[in-house]
Amino acid sequence: MLNAIQADITTLKVDAIVNAANSSLLGGGGVDGAIHRAAGSELLAECKILGGCPTGEAKLTKGYKLPAKFVIHTVGPVWLGGNHNEAGLLENCYTNSLKLALEHRIKTIAFPSISTGVYGYPINEAAHIAIQTCQKKLNELQSDIEITFCCFSKHDLEVYQSLLNKGIC
Ligand code: AR6
Fold first, then answer.
1. Which of ligand 1's atoms lies nearest the C-alpha of 29?
2. Does the N-terminal or the C-terminal CB of the chain have fewer CB atoms within 10 Å?
3. How many domains does the chain have?
4. Ligand 1 atom closest to 30 (CA)
5. How many angstroms is it from 117 CA to the middle of ligand 1?
């Protein structure tokens, strides 16, 4: 099941929230900064032993002080105009995050809009990839995992909702 809401992802009581991290996994601004602040310093300590994460891949940690039990850290692509496999790499973020979620028997997961902040990915294209990739993966695995697209702005929510309503998948 897929749905979209407008919220601060750090407040969600789901099994896992996804972090739009950078390849160092050592924190940053945007949603990454918010997650580290809310989870507390133990999150950074666990991230330090993970040895970073290449673009498109994902790694799992505990959620510490967050209401979410786990954090899945994934690294989205920087938008370079669209001809640098940005779409393929963004698709990998969603696929690899869901793969980890299933391995850890996660039933509810929330994604931020990966790459669409500092990394500059256009929201319409990114939301399309997010929805299509997640739906495809759920169908493929016949999984009943509940996926929430957690939008920070009203505009982003409208983009996600209109795509979900159109049934683009
Ligand atoms: N809850 C939900 N969404 C949020 C929150 C929040 N608390 N805060 C921001 N967003 P960004 P990126 C939205 O820039 O583009 C970091 O420094 C935001 O409005 O966080 O993948 C990392 O360390 C936007 O829609 O991530 C990397 O260096 C979305 O989250 C770099 O930024 C993603 O924006 C990653 O850039």
1. 17
2. N
3. 1
4. 20
5. 5
Q: What is the CATH number of the domain that holds 133?
A: 3.40.220.10
Compute the distance from residue 30 Cα to the ligand 1 centre, in Å.
4
**The pLDDT of residue 168:** 58
Q: Is 144 among the catalytic positions? A: no
Confidence band for 91, pLDDT divided at 50, 70 and 90: very high
Nearest-CA residue for ligand 1 atom 24 is 117
Expressed as residue numbers, the domain containing 131 is 2-166
Whole-angstrom distance, CA of residue 121 vs CA of residue 4: 19
CA distance 27 to 42: 12
The pLDDT tens digits of the residues spanning 27-82 come to: 999 999 999 999 999 999 999 999 999 999 999 999 999 999 999 999 999 999 99
Q: What is the DSSP letter of 105?
A: T
Amino acid 14: pLDDT: 98
Measured in Å, residue 29 CA sits from the centre of ligand 1 at: 7
**Local structure of residue 85 (DSSP, 8 states):** S
**Which pLDDT value is given to residue 141?**
85
